Model the fold of this input.
Amino acid sequence: MLAGLAFKRKWQNKRKALGLPYDKPNIVTGANVQVCWEKFARYFEVELKEVKLREGYYVMDPAKAVEMVDENTICVAAILGSTLNGEFEDVKHLNDLLTEKNKQTGWDNADPC
Done:
Protein backbone atom coordinates (compact mmCIF):
# COMPACT_ATOMS: atom_id res chain seq x y z
CA MET A 1 0.00 0.00 0.00
CA LEU A 2 2.77 2.43 0.92
CA ALA A 3 4.74 1.64 -2.23
CA GLY A 4 1.67 2.27 -4.36
CA LEU A 5 0.97 5.51 -2.53
CA ALA A 6 4.57 6.63 -3.10
CA PHE A 7 4.20 5.93 -6.84
CA LYS A 8 0.94 7.89 -6.90
CA ARG A 9 2.39 10.90 -5.08
CA LYS A 10 5.52 10.95 -7.26
CA TRP A 11 3.34 10.92 -10.38
CA GLN A 12 0.96 13.58 -9.01
CA ASN A 13 3.79 15.91 -8.00
CA LYS A 14 5.44 15.62 -11.41
CA ARG A 15 2.14 16.26 -13.22
CA LYS A 16 1.32 19.25 -10.99
CA ALA A 17 4.75 20.78 -11.65
CA LEU A 18 4.12 20.43 -15.40
CA GLY A 19 0.62 21.93 -15.14
CA LEU A 20 -0.98 18.66 -16.30
CA PRO A 21 -4.07 16.86 -14.92
CA TYR A 22 -3.25 14.58 -12.00
CA ASP A 23 -6.63 13.13 -11.11
CA LYS A 24 -6.71 9.84 -13.07
CA PRO A 25 -3.74 7.64 -12.09
CA ASN A 26 -3.69 3.96 -13.04
CA ILE A 27 -1.63 0.85 -12.44
CA VAL A 28 -1.16 -2.08 -14.80
CA THR A 29 -1.15 -5.64 -13.44
CA GLY A 30 -1.83 -9.16 -14.61
CA ALA A 31 -5.20 -10.72 -13.77
CA ASN A 32 -3.18 -13.02 -11.48
CA VAL A 33 -2.19 -10.12 -9.23
CA GLN A 34 -2.31 -10.46 -5.46
CA VAL A 35 -5.35 -8.91 -3.84
CA CYS A 36 -3.26 -6.16 -2.19
CA TRP A 37 -3.00 -4.35 -5.55
CA GLU A 38 -6.77 -4.52 -6.06
CA LYS A 39 -7.28 -3.11 -2.57
CA PHE A 40 -4.68 -0.41 -3.16
CA ALA A 41 -6.45 0.71 -6.35
CA ARG A 42 -9.82 0.83 -4.58
CA TYR A 43 -8.65 2.53 -1.38
CA PHE A 44 -6.40 5.13 -3.02
CA GLU A 45 -8.58 5.91 -6.06
CA VAL A 46 -6.31 4.49 -8.74
CA GLU A 47 -7.68 2.77 -11.85
CA LEU A 48 -6.65 -0.89 -12.07
CA LYS A 49 -5.84 -2.06 -15.61
CA GLU A 50 -5.55 -5.86 -15.74
CA VAL A 51 -3.82 -7.83 -18.46
CA LYS A 52 -6.01 -10.85 -19.13
CA LEU A 53 -4.44 -14.29 -18.87
CA ARG A 54 -4.80 -16.91 -21.57
CA GLU A 55 -5.04 -20.69 -21.64
CA GLY A 56 -1.65 -22.20 -20.83
CA TYR A 57 -0.07 -18.80 -19.98
CA TYR A 58 -0.99 -17.80 -16.44
CA VAL A 59 1.24 -14.77 -15.88
CA MET A 60 1.12 -11.23 -17.23
CA ASP A 61 2.28 -10.88 -20.83
CA PRO A 62 4.91 -8.06 -20.74
CA ALA A 63 4.09 -6.81 -24.26
CA LYS A 64 0.37 -6.59 -23.50
CA ALA A 65 1.09 -4.85 -20.20
CA VAL A 66 3.21 -2.19 -21.90
CA GLU A 67 0.46 -1.64 -24.49
CA MET A 68 -1.85 -0.67 -21.60
CA VAL A 69 0.59 1.89 -20.17
CA ASP A 70 -0.31 5.53 -20.78
CA GLU A 71 0.67 8.96 -19.44
CA ASN A 72 -1.37 8.29 -16.29
CA THR A 73 0.31 4.99 -15.38
CA ILE A 74 2.06 5.20 -12.02
CA CYS A 75 3.51 1.66 -12.08
CA VAL A 76 3.34 -1.80 -13.59
CA ALA A 77 3.13 -4.47 -10.89
CA ALA A 78 4.89 -7.73 -11.76
CA ILE A 79 4.43 -10.85 -9.65
CA LEU A 80 7.27 -13.03 -8.44
CA GLY A 81 5.39 -16.11 -7.38
CA SER A 82 1.90 -16.00 -8.87
CA THR A 83 -0.84 -17.16 -6.54
CA LEU A 84 -2.15 -19.33 -9.39
CA ASN A 85 0.91 -21.50 -10.00
CA GLY A 86 3.96 -19.94 -8.30
CA GLU A 87 5.41 -18.84 -11.65
CA PHE A 88 7.55 -15.68 -11.89
CA GLU A 89 6.73 -13.00 -14.42
CA ASP A 90 9.46 -11.88 -16.82
CA VAL A 91 10.48 -8.71 -14.99
CA LYS A 92 13.63 -8.15 -17.09
CA HIS A 93 11.69 -8.23 -20.36
CA LEU A 94 8.96 -6.03 -18.85
CA ASN A 95 11.57 -3.50 -17.70
CA ASP A 96 13.24 -3.47 -21.12
CA LEU A 97 9.91 -2.83 -22.86
CA LEU A 98 8.96 -0.10 -20.38
CA THR A 99 12.35 1.57 -20.78
CA GLU A 100 11.88 1.63 -24.56
CA LYS A 101 8.32 2.98 -24.30
CA ASN A 102 9.45 5.70 -21.89
CA LYS A 103 12.21 6.71 -24.32
CA GLN A 104 9.66 6.94 -27.14
CA THR A 105 6.99 8.83 -25.18
CA GLY A 106 9.04 10.84 -22.70
CA TRP A 107 6.65 9.84 -19.91
CA ASP A 108 9.26 8.11 -17.72
CA ASN A 109 6.61 7.50 -15.09
CA ALA A 110 5.67 3.83 -15.50
CA ASP A 111 8.15 2.30 -13.10
CA PRO A 112 8.02 -1.45 -12.62
CA CYS A 113 6.95 -2.26 -9.06
